[in-house]
């Protein structure tokens, strides 16, 4: 006799979690409101019988709950709330209704899962987050410094304005005492952030050397140790992507098209219309940090690598705009990263086209 399958929807909040349990026919089997704590979550699941399938929406708690719930359920799906919004927000709304809707979406296999599960790169992932946060913080302080000078008509292009050796001459141009003191504090903050950023970068690179993929990715022109470390941390495993098009979409490199009235009636027969699909740019739902890695690598190889300059120049000769040619290079690089990582092979310029096909 097969075990009963139960579908559990969890609407997670800071203090409490509302839970709805449905059977395979969609009938409500249980409802509960429990504390958002490890012990209470595990205790609730242990009190249920059958094969348990659990879902919750992506949130600051999802990574922790995925690890807590996975040993006690046959399946844990962390779903994308943006893709569920049309159904979840329709009609009346409450925590209990949301939990029921999540359980029903799981039962009918209508959820779009957010990847969780590769614990082997967890340390690298956290170090990458720390490094990227420090990069953003330092950039923010730099922008604030330049805003002070530009707000007073002082040209400050380039990076010399941040140099310790030239700060005195820059500060002398600020006549107001309060403004000058503000700039001095920003310089102090920048020095601290740059020092922390260097430490975070060293820790990230040291951790990345523990992964075999790091050496493989570094053989690709434009992918240095830092970009390789970020790729491993952000992608975790290449096997989560069935094809290159899935990676393009995740990295924000997929072209979005829209079509309507695709078929016509001619001579009593249905035939496809000759109207072309409208291009609407690149997909917006993506990982922005991963997109920065591939765009940065594409810009580097297009300017410095002989292997890629010919490919880039060919696209320009075909009449392609420079920004579209650069996008093509980024998509090609993403494809090669995926293929080499899956196969465990090193980059070979002679097989560039075959690897990117």
Question: Any overview of this molecule?
Answer:
- The strands form 3 sheets. This protein has a 5-stranded mixed beta sheet. It has a two-stranded antiparallel sheet with strand order 6-9. A two-stranded antiparallel ribbon has the order 7-8.
- Strand 2 and strand 3 form a beta hairpin.
- 52% of the residues lie in helices and 15% in strands.
- The radius of gyration is 26 Å and the shape is globular.
- With 357 residues, the chain is of the alpha/beta class.
- The two termini are 48 Å apart.
Topology:
Layout: E1 5-12, E2 16-23, E3 28-35, H1 38-46, E4 51-57, H2 62-69, E5 75-79, H3 81-88, H4 95-107, H5 122-150, H6 167-171, H7 177-208, H8 213-218, H9 225-235, H10 244-250, E6 255-258, E7 263-266, E8 269-272, E9 278-282, H11 288-304, H12 306-317, H13 322-343, H14 352-356
Parallel strand pairs: 1-4, 4-5
Antiparallel strand pairs: 1-2, 2-3, 6-9, 7-8
Helix pairs in contact: 5-7, 5-9, 7-9, 9-11, 11-12, 11-13, 12-13
Helix coverage percent: 40-55%
- State the end-to-end CA separation: 48 Å
Shape: globular
Give the strand tally: 9
Largest sheet: 5 strands, mixed
Q: Output the structural class.
A: alpha/beta
